[in-house]
Each structure stands twice: as C-alpha cells, then as structure tokens.
Amino acid sequence: MKLLLGSVALLASGCFFELEPPIRAETCDGPETELSLVTTGNTWKYLDTGEFFDGWTSPSFDDSAWKSGPSELGYGDDNEATVVGYGPNPDDKFVTTYFRHTFAAPTCIVWLLMELKRDDGAVVYVNGMEVMRSNMPGGIITPQTRPETFVSSNAELTFHPADIEPSLVVAGTNLVAAEVHQLEPDGTDISFDLRLTATTTQR
C-alpha cells in the first residue's frame, strides 16, 4: 500500500505536518517499484531488562549484548514469534521494552511507508530521528512514560500506517529503533511488529 500524500514529519509534541514530496534527481526518473525494507519475521535486537541506555536509537550504539529474535515480539498473547521478559514481578512489569533492527536501503527512494503494530504504545526512530509516535503522549518520553489509552483486542492486531520522510534513509545500512510502553503495571501483554516499504525508481 502506498499513501498518495506528501511525506509526514513528526514534531516532538506528537503532532504531524505534511511535507512536499522530495525532488527527484534526473538519475532517479525510472519506473517506480515497491521494495520491502523491513517485514514481519525479521530479526530484532531487544532489551527487556528494565534498563535504559543513552544513545540507544543511534546506528553507532553497541547492542551486541542485547538479545535477539524474530518478530512479532512481546508477551501474553500466545502468538509471539519471540517472547520478551517483563521483570521479576508480574504485578509491576517493566514499563518500556526496546527494539533495534538494521536494514539495507537502495538509492532513489521516493516514498517510505511505515506500518506499526503496538500494544500498548510506541515511539519509532529511523537513524536516531523520531518518525512515529502511536498511543503515546506529546512532549518528552522517558522510560517511565505510560501510553495514553488501553488497547483492545482488535487494535492489538492493527498495523498503523505513517508516511516517513525518505531523506532520513541513506543508501546502504540504516537503523530502525522502537520503544514499546506498557499501560498498567499488571498489564497482561505487549506486542510489537513493524513493516517498512519503500517506493523506489530505477537509476
């Protein structure tokens, strides 16, 4: 699916504003094709220890000590490909779980569509820049920030779409990082999955 809109940027307040489509170079004027950059089943590094590390959204951050597993990731729904931990106390689960995934991108990307599955809330970053905030309050997000609302069973299965500014992705290796936040200390589940689709032109 491609959204035929200008690219959307996310402010720190959580509000979106529409950007003009990027200007195409003459070398990128070939036919458009869709390419999956990130898809369900990809392997993600994740941190489920209740810790927080500065710089964790940066491509240069060392996540070699993090665990890894394919998506969907989470706990409590019995449909996860990877079950993550929530801490020693089921009545006081960790608020935030962190995820990182590197992906390769080509040149000549003219559109980017991100689709996010989250329960309860999530913030997503590409190469260290926030690009999507879903069911989370505006302002500064901390490891203890709670989502805005409860996510019902139907919403847990939904992939929420957003256009991403193509210039945030470089030709070669890129990083997408996400933090998923639990609403209640005794909440029964969290879920995370993400798809990223590029529309490219041939050189």
Describe this structure as you would to a colleague.
The protein is mainly β. The chain has one domain (36-51, 65-201): Galactose-binding domain-like (Jelly Rolls), CATH 2.60.120. 2% of the residues lie in helices and 43% in strands. The protein has 1 helix and 14 strands. The protein has one helix at residues 153-156; strands at 8-10, 16-18, 32-38, 43-47, 67-70, 73-75, 82-83, 96-105, 109-119, 121-126, 129-134, 160-164, 172-181, 190-201. The strands form 3 sheets. Strands 3, 6, 7, 9, 12 and 14 form a 6-stranded mixed sheet that branches. The protein has a 6-stranded antiparallel sheet with strand order 5-4-8-13-10-11, with no helix packed on it. The protein has a two-stranded antiparallel sheet with strand order 1-2. The chain is globular.
Task: Name the features.
6-stranded antiparallel sheet; single chain; globular; 203 residues; mainly beta; Jelly Rolls
Determine the N-to-C terminus distance: 23 Å
Instruction: Please write the string of helix (H) and strand (E) elements.
Output: EEEEEEEEEEEHEEE
**Range of strand content:** 35-45%
Rounded mean pLDDT is 88
The count of domains is: 1
Task: Compose a concise summary of this entry.
By secondary structure, the protein is an all-beta fold. It has one helix at 153-156; strands at 8-10, 16-18, 32-38, 43-47, 67-70, 73-75, 82-83, 96-105, 109-119, 121-126, 129-134, 160-164, 172-181, 190-201.
Topology:
Blueprint: E1 8-10, E2 16-18, E3 32-38, E4 43-47, E5 67-70, E6 73-75, E7 82-83, E8 96-105, E9 109-119, E10 121-126, E11 129-134, H1 153-156, E12 160-164, E13 172-181, E14 190-201
Parallel strand pairs: 6-7
Antiparallel strand pairs: 1-2, 3-14, 4-5, 4-8, 6-14, 8-13, 9-12, 9-14, 10-11, 10-13
